[in-house]
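Deliverable D2.4 — example input (structure tokens):
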């Protein structure tokens, strides 16, 4: 016990710093590495994204217990969640809010009976396009505006989906890479309490296809 006490006394500054970092990353802000392409082109494989954990709730550190409700996710938000259905942390976009009716016909999104609008987009540097050629559209619905990736040759069987009604306290989330995303079309609705924060910016980015060299143009990039 005396040895432990001496160790703690010698290292109390470092231990205090580490405890503060754990609390900060758990309850205030964190960064997540994105290892998959389900949110391309908005988020590229290898991006490190900043997660604002105070966007919606003040939580007890290291738990999902909310001490103070600050806001609810809005349509178009990019959220990070600890998904029980997927058994992992996911990054997806909020599409359907509680009470919304959502459907998809040939990758055209319908919300409450109204179709989103689409215009052609142009995005470069997506490595998956080499093995799976794709095209890009800008999807708009109300104030929501973002790019989506659509495979030219391998459309998802879930390109036709619903209509479904989003239950109270739950959200319908989709990936921007519509033909390459495990989302609400497969996993169902996501409970509000599983959403741990909102992603705003890319902190840093390393390109796994080029020896993990930094993508300097991605550093600090805002996520739309």
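Example output (designed residues):
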């Amino acid at each position: 016990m005396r040895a432990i006490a001496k160790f703690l006394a010698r290292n109390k500054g470092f231990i205090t710093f580490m405890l503060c970092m754990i609390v900060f990353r758990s309850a205030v802000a964190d960064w997540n590495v994105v290892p998959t392409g389900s949110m391309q082109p908005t988020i590229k494989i290898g991006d490190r994204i900043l997660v604002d954990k105070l966007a919606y709730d003040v939580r007890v550190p290291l738990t999902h217990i909310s001490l103070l409700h600050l806001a609810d996710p809005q349509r178009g938000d990019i959220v990070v969640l600890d998904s029980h259905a997927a058994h992992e942390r996911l990054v997806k976009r909020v599409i359907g809010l509680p009470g919304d009716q959502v459907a998809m016909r040939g990758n055209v999104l319908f919300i409450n009976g109204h179709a989103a609008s689409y215009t052609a987009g142009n995005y470069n540097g997506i490595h998956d396009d080499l093995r799976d050629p794709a095209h890009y559209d800008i999807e708009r619905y109300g104030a929501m505006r973002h790019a989506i990736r659509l495979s030219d040759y391998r459309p998802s069987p879930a390109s036709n989906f619903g209509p479904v009604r989003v239950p109270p306290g739950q959200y319908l989330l989709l990936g921007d890479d519509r033909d390459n995303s495990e989302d609400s079309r497969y996993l169902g609705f996501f409970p509000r309490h599983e959403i741990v924060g909102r992603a705003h910016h890319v902190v840093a980015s390393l390109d796994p296809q080029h020896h993990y060299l930094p993508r300097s143009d991605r550093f600090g990039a805002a996520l739309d």
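The first strand starts at residue 29 and ends at 33.
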